Structure to design on (67 residues):
C-alpha cells in the first residue's frame, strides 16, 4: 500500500473513532497488519527517511487514540 492510501486510511480511522471506537480499533489493527506486511516485503530497504518511516509515524499517531 502506498503512503497516500495509508494516510487516507488513517484519516478514515480517525473519523470512525468518533462514532464507533470498537470498529476504529479493529481497523487500526488491520492497518498495523498491513504495516507489518509492508515491512517484511521491504526488509532489504533502509527504513529512515522512506515511506515506511512515514507509515510508522502515521501508525504511531493513530496509536495515541487507543491508549
Amino acid at each position: 500500500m502506498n503512503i497516500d492510501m495509508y494516510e487516507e486510511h488513517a484519516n478514515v480511522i480517525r473519523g470512525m473513532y468518533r462514532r464507533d471506537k470498537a470498529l476504529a480499533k479493529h481497523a487500526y489493527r488491520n492497518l498495523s497488519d498491513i504495516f507489518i506486511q509492508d515491512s517484511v516485503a521491504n526488509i532489504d530497504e533502509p527504513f529512515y527517511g522512506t515511506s515506511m518511516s512515514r507509515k510508522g509515524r502515521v501508525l504511531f499517531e493513530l496509536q495515541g487514540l487507543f491508549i
